[in-house]
């Protein structure tokens, strides 16, 4: 127990969490602090580029393995399964309509790449390595949950049947984060350690500072979202935002063990499963399920689950991975 | 100076829908369009602002185009299925342009 508390304290007092907290408090206090939209988009692209490139360079060193393919397929399977579970839990515990529950479930089946990046940084600060191909797993887990949520929604609403699924998947797969992440991963894979050394001053040394600035913006966004959208969330829905990451992580733990992932790799797969999307999926839901209330899924994902994962979730996943997978 | 009667179509639409809308306009062979970012507003679904969002969901854009009076009804028919369920405002107004052959 003291181990998990020590991990949590170490994480809570890291610059990235403190900058996130600064943004959150500034937004709740109605400060005029703002990160301009274009800069925030640039920072996001930088982070995708850096994490994708590092992952690709690591795969160049370790080579392609059956475990890599199995992990990517397992990630996709998890993102097909988690939305079904999330939908059932929401319908059982809250009064959300089937359409709102399906749209929210899609967010929990998909992933938050920023939570993933924060988790890699936490691992680095603890001196834990991870498998570079988890970046490709992250990209693979972005879209399948949307498909599942739409199929669920079709059982309850005729309107939801209008959306061509293939077109929706193509649009999500073509969004800027996925293209940058996979593109940088492939470039890192092709150029390997030599390529990494060439751009290390940009994607290595600056990484933590840029992440802090980005998380400041995320804190501001989460704080504003909470301020404006919190009335939309009932107590059971807020609780769902807190326990669903742990349910997803618990479901993923045996998968990590079966795959034989390292402690770091297991932490990242737990983080991916536990995180909820707030970029690609909300846009997809506005296209495919506009009847769903966006305030519910955005506030829940960004205002409740993201801060939970960033502060308490990540150290918990490290602790679980250490305890079960081994240090 | 001679002026030409045309129709000005203004579409305020959710940002995630933009590419699909532009695809319809391209397929309809309109002579051109202009996309403008919308800063903030309020409607049936409450207030919104493009500041402080992590995603395109919640952002709005405005598409403005000029078409000939004959083309306007067909264009409205093509756009309607896209905006049946989504947040959108479509308006058509009479305008006068100097270079009528352009539209």
Report on this structure.
The complex is a heterodimer of chains A (327) and B (103). The longest helix of chain A has 32 residues, at 294-325. By secondary structure, chain A is mostly helical. Chain A has 15 helices and no strands. Chain A has a single domain (2-325), classed as Na+/H+ antiporter like fold (Up-down Bundle). In chain A, helix 2 runs parallel beside helix 11 and helix 5 (98-109) packs across helix 15 (294-325). The two termini of chain A are 16 Å apart. Chain B has helices at residues 18-27, 72-83; strands spanning 4-14, 34-37, 40-43, 46-49, 60-67, 88-97. The model of chain B has no long low-confidence stretch (mean pLDDT 89). In chain B, helix 1 packs antiparallel against helix 2. Chain B is built from two helices and six strands, in the order E-H-E-E-E-E-H-E. In chain B, strands 2-5-1-6 form a four-stranded antiparallel sheet, with no helix packed on it. Chain B is an alpha+beta fold. Helices cover 21% and strands 40% of the residues of chain B. Chain B has a single domain (4-102), classed as Alpha-Beta Plaits (2-Layer Sandwich). Chain B is elongated, with a radius of gyration of 15 Å. In chain B, 24% of the residues are buried. The A-B interface holds A 27, 34, 37, 159, 162, 171, 218, 220-221, 224-225, 228, 278-280, 282-287, 290-291, 294, 298, 302 and B 14-17, 19-20, 47, 50-58, 85-87.
